[in-house]
Amino acid sequence: MPATNRHIAWAATLVGVAGTLTAVFPALATAGIHGIEVQDCSSGTCTTPASYIVGQSYSFIAPYDGVSITGPVSSFYDNGACIGSSNNSVTWVPLTAGTHTLSTRTGSNTDSLTVVVVAAPPGSPTAQQPQQGGCGGSIGSGSSNLLPGS
Fold first, then answer.
1. Beta carbons within 8 Å of 7's beta carbon, 6+ residues apart
2. What is the C-alpha separation between 126 and 129, in angstroms, rounded?
3. Using CA atoms, how far apart are residues 130 and 57, in angstroms rounded to an integer?
4. How far apart are CA 105 and CA 18, in angstroms?
5. pLDDT at position 68, please?
6. For 6-21, how does the pLDDT look when each residue is reduced to its tens digit (9 = 90+)?
7. How far is CA 44 from CA 66, 97, 150, in A?
């Protein structure tokens, strides 16, 4: 059998295997890494907010592969300071207005997203960031002021 025919046979075999895997495991057809998301879930439906406001709660969601039922544990950070650890998401409450770099670390992988937070209306209660487990270290500057006055 000439080399060209062997190459065609191998290509046909690979296409057949890919088709079979997709038919048996349909999630593989749409699998992909989804990046960090920060969602407002206060209405019961999670959406990406038009703006982030000091003192409001947001779901900070780690990247995932779209296939796994549960992901590995990720550590979550706001400007380098630990927010908590989870295999999916934590609650993020921005405590200061300005630019925030939100990061996740899963094993040796680090992903980040930069958002701008606007001030809360005058008279709003003092925000508190809930602690949601430890992170085992920090990323970046650690300037998120997780505790008021720190």
1. none
2. 10
3. 10
4. 32
5. 65
6. 555 554 454 444 444 4
7. 22, 25, 33
- The pLDDT score that the predictor gives to residue 93 is 95
CB atoms within 10 A of CB 105: 22
User: The tokens of 8 are what?
Assistant: 């065609």
Residue 37 and residue 62 in contact, taking contact as beta carbons nearer than 8 Å: no
End-to-end CA gap in the chain: 75
The neighbouring-strand residues paired with 81 are: 78
Say which amino acid occupies 92.
W
pLDDT of residue 131: 79
Claim: this prediction has a pTM higher than 0.70: no
User: What six digits make up the tokens of 15?
Assistant: 């296409």
Return the C-alpha torsion angle 70, 130, 56, 83, nearest 10: -60
More confident residue, 117 or 136: 117
pLDDT exceeds cutoff 90 at 134: no
